[in-house]
Design brief:
Length: 281
């Protein structure tokens, strides 16, 4: 892709760090309603702009159907960008008050939502980044991101190098605060800073899958260290002994009297896997 100054047919002014290019004139018409004082601006390229008398809201409609609106608030302003059938983007900018910062919402047609809050690391903690920060783009390296699907699953990153994958009520509770920061169960946690994926189940068992595809059973290793060996661990290690465990959501299904034939699967450390079968199969 050619550089920006070539696309604009301009020249770079190195002393000022800007690109200088010619803007061709475009025929423009402006109309102000005599009663409501609403202003309408149109041009020959198909752009239409609307503005109310108090300048609280401005709306631009481009020739391709893209709508851009800006609405003033007491503590900031909102900017929305939409075009059918693409996702709707809304940016909330708060310039005063107790919660100064920027929050971006993206709503997709399939019901998925994406929320982004730019943050910066200050005095050992993450703080919302002020929209007036001159180096906004370079400092916004710890954004808080939450991606939710219409089914309730969520992928959440709070800007600390950890990405969590949750479902159901755990996703909603974790997105609202830090109460479940270290106690969320049945949650996949990807540690981007150390290249590993962790899981904690409802029984307290912890498992860690590393980037080199090695598996570390954290809870089992701790049990062996505490008890002095594998012989001291109580078996079977299940919720209820001598009773089969039924998968959630299958309680109403009929249980057969005979068990299926056992299968032997081999999974290697390099990611390959194979199944050993009898000659008759």
């Amino acid at each position: 892709m050619p550089p920006l100054h070539e696309l604009l047919d301009g020249a770079i002014i190195e002393s000022q760090g800007v690109i200088e290019y010619e803007i061709k004139p475009v025929s423009t018409a402006c109309q102000v309603d005599l009663q409501t004082k609403h202003k309408t601006i149109t041009n020959a390229l198909g752009l239409a702009a609307f503005e109310d008398p108090s300048e609280m809201q401005k709306l631009c409609v481009h020739a391709d159907g893209t709508k851009v609106s800006r609405t003033k608030k007491t503590d900031g302003y909102d900017v929305s960008v939409s075009k059918e059938p693409l996702a709707h983007v809304k940016c909330e900018v708060q310039t005063s008050g107790d919660e100064v910062g920027v929050r971006v919402y993206v709503e997709c047609a399939d019901g998925a939502t994406l929320e982004i809050v730019p943050q910066t690391l200050a005095r050992g903690s993450l703080q919302p980044l002020s929209p007036d920060e001159p180096e906004f783009s370079s400092l916004a390296g710890h954004a808080r991101i939450c991606l939710k699907t219409c089914e309730g699953a969520a992928v959440i990153s709070k800007g600390r190098g950890q990405v969590r994958v949750l479902s159901g009520s755990d996703a909603e509770a974790f997105a609202q605060g830090d109460a479940l920061e270290d106690t969320a169960e049945q949650c996949y946690v990807a540690h981007c800073d150390v290249d590993c994926l962790c899981l904690r189940d409802v029984t307290g068992g912890e498992y860690q899958l590393n980037g080199d595809q090695t598996l570390h059973t954290i809870s089992l290793a701790q049990g062996v260290t505490t008890s002095g060996g594998l012989d001291e661990l109580h078996s079977p290690r299940c919720l209820v002994s001598q009773q089969s465990s039924i998968a959630k959501g299958t309680e109403s299904l009929e249980v057969t009297n005979t068990a299926p034939h056992p299968r032997l699967l081999l999974v290697y450390g390099d990611g390959r896997a194979e199944e050993l079968m009898a000659k008759g199969d």
